[in-house]
Write the structure tokens for this entry.
Amino acid sequence: MISGLGDTDVSVEGCTVNVCMRSCITDYSVNFQAVVASTITNSQPNFAIDIDGWAIPSNIQLADPAFNRPQRVDLLIGASLFYGLLCYDAHSIDGSAKGSESSNDQADASLNELVRRFWEVESCEYVATRLSREQKDCEEHCRKNVIRLPSGEYSVTLPMKSSVLVFLNLKRKLQRHPDLRMQYSSCIEEYLKLNHMSRVPAEPIERCKYFLPHHCVLKADSTTTKLRVVFDGSAATSTGYSLNEVMMAGPVIQDKLMHILLRFRTYLVALTGDICKMYRCVRMASADSYYQCILWRDSPDKELQIFKLDTVTYGTKAASFLSVRAMHQLAHDEAGSFPVGSVALKNEFYVDDFISEGDSVAEVKVKLQETAAILARANFKLRKWCSSHAEVLSEIADDEKESYMRFSDGSEITKTLGLAWDPSSDRLLFSLSFLEAGSKPCRRSVLATIARFYDPLGLLGPVMTKSKIFLQQLCKDKLTWDESLPLQRYTAWVEMCSSFNSISSLSFPRAILAAGCRVEVHGFCDASEEAYGA
């Protein structure tokens, strides 16, 4: 029975029909099942509406030209079909007709933050770093609690804000595909083999203080790890708190990637590398490892088992700070034995990426040897070596070399367009996945597409400026996040997406200075009503 139609109860049994609904104007069609009722509601609207003052565009066809006069309602369509009817040719009339607004204020706030970050990527403004009280406390906590183990590795403790409440929200993402489950199980098994995880026996199970939900992330462009298990330290408990909420984050203690890349372009010989499983190279203090408990079983017919993660864990708030801070501590402890390598640890790493350079092959080879050797003292392993000069890597095994270096800011946003370096030609280029406008572009999808572009050096300034101006225009149109683009904007967006695909043919020389050249700095700037550049 269905109640509420025509103030009656309508029986569903024996009163349904299959309907194929087609647009009179476009090629839109949809099939659905409808219930036959004697009446739906009174004529709608209840009274005639005066539309003389409405600025309805003359170049569009209305689905119902007489929409303002009372008429019989022949068909009541469910909400599940409503948004499919709002095709790209949607219009707002004097701001009175708007698309659907998201009820999730937190999601909109996140989008606004993304817009802010997107505009700041190219900012070169120097801001003196002033640590917050929490960041100072986090640094002091790490300084007091970092311990060098007999193996050479470092052990750290979690920088908690206060006592942590028991984690009661247990969940684990089940894998539906056999091949995915096999890869997932292999990752967990690797944790056990590398002694990065240990099983919690039944006796001390009461020591478990937090259980981390986990899921997998697939990276098709990775040359080493296609599947990565990610642990969610932000999952809220039944108390409303998460592990990350009661943990200090710590300050950023590495140079900005743009500064590192600028240095990378000013020397003749370039060298890059990558630390294998960087976070997991730093051990977690035994007591704090019980804040990193997980549930796992290899197959559904086995009982769930409890494990604890014994290393710094990706997905926890302080993971990046703790691992980088351990590297800086290593640079301090081993500076006497490796003077060149210790400087490289502090100045030429962006998270786990080693981005270095020098004036000669001999200089860079020394840097390679010392950096690898000092990291080995704490069981960090450098791999994925790339160099603009093959002789730099003459003593490196082929399986430790990489033919391609892709830069990333480490954010959780998947980058469609990423800055990359081809060491064989010693040129910077952009690896670009195929972009398409989408069936129903809106302000949200436009932002999601544009924000995937990653160009910290501003090499694609003309392209990025044009796309940012387009996004500004959508904001000035006062379109909501999910409102379909007007026809004119839609056409411009389709053309812009088509032009994006030509970016992959562009390349730029990495080295911009010749040896012994005289350097002068000149400033240029220009501005228009829509943008400025310097």
User: Anything to note?
Assistant: Residues 95-103, 162-175, 411-416 have pLDDT under 50 and may be disordered. Residues 105-121+427-533 form one domain. The first strand starts at residue 2 and ends at 5. The chain has two domains: 105-121+427-533, 133-405.
